[in-house]
UniProtKB/TrEMBL annotation:
Source lineage: Bacteria, Pseudomonadati, Pseudomonadota, Gammaproteobacteria, Thiotrichales
A GO cellular-component term linked to this record: cytosol
Record has ATP-binding as a keyword: yes
Protein name according to UniProt: Predicted ATPase related to phosphate starvation-inducible protein PhoH
Organism: uncultured Thiotrichaceae bacterium
Entry-linked InterPro entries: P-loop_NTPase, PhoH, PhoH2-like, PIN-like_dom_sf, PIN_dom
Keyword annotations from UniProtKB, A to Z: ATP-binding, Nucleotide-binding
Family of the protein in this entry: In the N-terminal section; belongs to the PINc/VapC protein family.
PANTHER family tied to this protein: PIN DOMAIN-CONTAINING PROTEIN, PROTEIN PHOH
GO molecular function: ATP binding
Limits of the PIN domain: 7-146
Amino acid sequence: MTNSNRRLFVLDTNILMHDPTSLFRFQEHDIYIPMTVLEELDNGKKGLSEVARNVRQVSRFIDTLMEQYDNGIEEGVPLILDSAPQQSKESSGRLFFQTEVLADSLPSNLPGDTPDNNILAVALALQEKYAERQITLVSKDINLRIKASVIGINAEDYFNDHAIEDADLLPVGFHELPKDFWELHSRDMESWQEQSKTLYRLKGPLVKEWKPGEFLTLEGDQPFQAIIRDNDGEQALIETIKDFSEEHHSVWGINALNTEQNLAINLLTDPEVDFVTLLGTAGTGKTLLTLAAGLAQTLDEKRYKEIIMTRVTIPVGEDIGFLPGTEEEKMAPWMGALMDNLEVLTQPTSGGNWGRNATDEFLMNKIKLRSLNFMRGRTFLNRYIIVDEAQNLTSKQMKTLITRAGPGTKVVCLGNIAQIDTPYLTETSSGLTYVVDRFQGWEHGGHVTLKTGERSRLAAFASENL
């Protein structure tokens, strides 16, 4: 442990529990795991939760690393593993374990009888023992980082799980065109008709900023809205979209109330788009638009066999305990958004309560409520999958869910990254942020950020001022 150019990172348990591949994400720098962390990993390995699975994966990684290395463990285990994910190929550091009792130099007001204080004691002892090296404690626990800073230990959050540096960098899904757009891009332009759509192939200074799956909007006396189908950096193929604000273009009785809603409905009803993400605050219409488009394509167009709706079951307040019944009955309390929007979408003009109940029962035969806990290993064919409150999913959970999609299936992820309830997830590390960033530029995916609240004037005021 004599190379002073390499930093030495002391990992907290929650880093490994959150991301098992974090072992291989520190490039040329070394990693140190205190004995307390190994003890906490051992206590957390049991169960079927995502955390327990991550802990078992960390243990397998460490076990394989030690099997590949026959020399003394005090010299550090090279972080090179052929079977590890791609990020391990960039890792050239070493993994060190606490093999001796280090001098306890904690202040008297921080006795080393708690796991966090034990980790602080190890980091402080390493800082004194290897004064020539930069020792950094890495933890997702804000309070632990604060305590570390108070006693003079450099502490950092774990940033490698962040999809982007700032949530404000997320795309909104469309480009607002300048008024002189056609003057700058009409030269050498080609246009033709296909069914009811008009397509354009054009060149110009703005083309290099566009990505397939994004929209173009132009306001004014002659409004224009189109989706980018292809772009090679020099010329782009764009296609006009439907105006769902017109009454005769409604979807299951729902019309777009603003530009973003119109773009969202076009994505939700486009058979060429397999994956859609909708971001927006409360009341912007994410669930209503998604459900209306799903019902229209499932019942009217017969494009999908059924609608599957799921979400993470994280309570806002105190947990009410176990729920009785079948999987659907257990999920029902979490699906209040579904029932609220069904009430808007199903208002029979005749039949009274009987007609309304019959309609709801008919629709629920086509809408299935499923728990995320039982998604692993499944394959959904010709289904319309709605993932509500997707901001509470990790990137790994999101990958597990999206890869369940079989031929003919569409996945729609809804959420508001300002309302994250999952511990250790932030706006920049949420699974929803991750997929919005990774699916940019894929011609069969699309994203729209809904900005205008349409629920009520009360909800709009509360969203802005509370």
